[in-house]
């Protein structure tokens, strides 16, 4: 992991990970996670068409996509293919920007040795690239403004490790769980959930006090929307904690309107949830009271489109927390196709072998 970080700093890209990084389910070897017709085809080929050399290539159909999952797919092949040392593997790298119909991975060898892994590789590339691309899009918009991945709660916990790696590949190293940082050496971060405030009967000051008592070497970032009175509670907490308060996090539900708007005309905008009008008002209130050092963190239903609008309007946000948008797995879909048979072009109508000068031959093994 240290070498990974060194390479990142020196060349601005991710170094290739290896079989030792990934903890694969051993049932992959027996096809437990493979589509059944691939398993049947493997048997048919072994009994009737054994020995042919095929080339399979993977691509997707969108422009400006950040590729991720390549190292994992290669490690999968090296771990579970039969005679992986005989496969010719050519690939791009995790973190590369790709366009539609561009091949990202080609594997040449006996179909019976690796074909059953086709759909598993499809899924790896689709998931990792979708997350990396979503993060990449947000990073392009927010620039130097920090962003925090809160995507651990948006899907099955088993997705955290790979999603966290894809998030890191795309440039965000602030994550919620240690699992999200496993493959790149990161650690989870965060302070308090609403549950802590609830156990203090809604007393944000008490929650902040006992947090700081328990973790005296940390400044406090406090959730501030529990009582749906963000500005008043932020001012009370800032007066109470002083410079011990690092930031307040606004996480208002889209179904709610903060009490700040109780006596305000909201006919010209939507006041629900974490709206920009609330954040502008919060920043002004903190500054006017002498708490300009208190940062503002926002979360809850933030998408690329919403962040883009807020950045354009210079909404005073010090850190964005993004969850669901990062792990929306409909962003990128990959397809694997056989495009050569015994060295000659052979593919279904609409598919063909696509030449690429970007593909690099991968040695076996890679550790």
Layout of secondary structure:
Elements: H1 2-11, H2 36-48, E1 53-60, E2 65-66, H3 70-80, E3 88-91, E4 97-98, E5 105-110, H4 111-114, H5 118-142, E6 147-149, H6 160-169, H7 194-199, H8 204-214, E7 220-223, H9 230-241, E8 245-250, H10 276-288, E9 295-298, H11 304-312, E10 319-322, E11 334-341, E12 344-345, E13 360-362
Parallel strand pairs: 6-10, 7-8, 8-9, 9-10
Antiparallel strand pairs: 1-5, 1-11, 2-4, 3-5, 3-13, 11-12
The major β-sheet equals: 6 strands, antiparallel
Coarse morphology: elongated
Tally the helices: what do you get?
11
Task: Please name the fourth-level CATH homologous superfamily of the largest domain.
Answer: nicotinate phosphoribosyltransferase
Structural class of the secondary elements? alpha/beta
Strands ordered across the widest β-sheet: 12-11-1-5-3-13
**Corresponding CATH architecture of the largest domain:** Alpha-Beta Barrel
Rg computed from alpha carbons, rounded to a whole number of angstroms: 25 Å
Give the CA-CA distance, first to last residue: 13 Å
Fraction of residues in H or I helices: 25-40%
Provide the succession of SSEs. Answer: HHEEHEEEHHEHHHEHEHEHEEEE
Low-pLDDT stretches: 1-13
Mean pLDDT: 91
How many beta-strand elements? 13
- Number of domain units: 2
CATH class of the largest domain: Alpha Beta
User: What is CATH's topology name of the largest domain?
Assistant: nicotinate phosphoribosyltransferase
> What is the strand content?
15-25%
Describe this entry's structure for a reader.
The protein is of the alpha/beta class and 367 residues long. The protein folds into 2 domains: 2-132 and 329-362, Alpha-Beta Barrel (nicotinate phosphoribosyltransferase); 190-322, TIM Barrel. Helices cover 34% and strands 15% of the residues. The protein has helices at residues 2-11, 36-48, 70-80, 111-114, 118-142, 160-169, 194-199, 204-214, 230-241, 276-288, 304-312, and strands spanning 53-60, 65-66, 88-91, 97-98, 105-110, 147-149, 220-223, 245-250, 295-298, 319-322, 334-341, 344-345, 360-362. It has a 6-stranded antiparallel sheet with strand order 12-11-1-5-3-13. The chain has a 5-stranded parallel sheet with strand order 6-10-9-8-7. The protein has a two-stranded antiparallel ribbon with strand order 2-4. The longest helix is centred in the middle third of the chain and has 25 residues, at 118-142. The protein starts with a helix and ends in a 5-residue tail after the last strand. Residues 1-13 have low confidence and may be disordered.
């Amino acid at each position: 992991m240290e070498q990974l970080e060194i390479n990142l700093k020196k060349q601005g890209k991710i170094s290739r990970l290896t079989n030792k990084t990934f903890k694969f389910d051993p049932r992959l070897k027996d096809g437990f996670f493979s589509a059944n017709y691939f398993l049947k085809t493997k048997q048919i080929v072994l009994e009737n068409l054994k020995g042919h050399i095929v080339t399979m290539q993977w691509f997707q159909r969108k422009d400006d996509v950040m590729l991720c999952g390549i190292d994992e797919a290669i490690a999968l092949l090296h771990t579970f293919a039969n005679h992986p040392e005989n496969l010719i593997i050519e690939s791009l790298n995790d973190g590369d920007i790709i366009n539609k119909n561009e091949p990202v991975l080609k594997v040449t060898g006996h179909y019976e040795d690796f074909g059953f892994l086709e759909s598993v590789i499809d899924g790896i590339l689709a998931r990792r690239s979708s997350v990396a691309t979503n993060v990449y899009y947000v990073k392009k918009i927010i620039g130097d403004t920090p962003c925090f991945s809160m995507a651990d709660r948006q899907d099955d916990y088993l997705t955290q490790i790979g999603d966290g790696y894809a998030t890191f590949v795309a440039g965000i190293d602030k994550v919620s769980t240690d699992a999200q940082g496993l493959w790149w050496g990161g650690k989870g971060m965060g302070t308090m959930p609403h549950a802590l405030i609830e156990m203090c009967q809604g007393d944000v000051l008490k929650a902040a006090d006992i947090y700081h008592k328990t973790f005296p070497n940390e400044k406090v970032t406090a959730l501030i929307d529990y009582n749906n009175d963000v500005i008043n509670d932020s001012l009370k907490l800032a007066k109470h904690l002083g410079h011990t308060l690092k930031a307040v996090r606004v996480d208002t539900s889209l179904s709610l309107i903060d009490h700040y708007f109780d006596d305000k005309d909201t006919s010209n905008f939507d006041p629900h949830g974490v709206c920009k009008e609330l954040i502008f008002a919060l920043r002004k209130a903190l500054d006017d009271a002498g708490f300009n050092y208190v940062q503002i963190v926002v979360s809850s239903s933030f998408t690329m489109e919403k962040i883009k609008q807020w950045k354009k309007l210079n909404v005073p946000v010090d850190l964005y927390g993004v969850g669901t948008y990062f792990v929306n797995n409909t962003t990128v879909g990959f397809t694997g196709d056989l495009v050569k048979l015994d060295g000659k072009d052979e593919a279904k109508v609409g598919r063909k072998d696509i030449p690429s000068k970007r593909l690099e031959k991968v040695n076996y093994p890679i550790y």
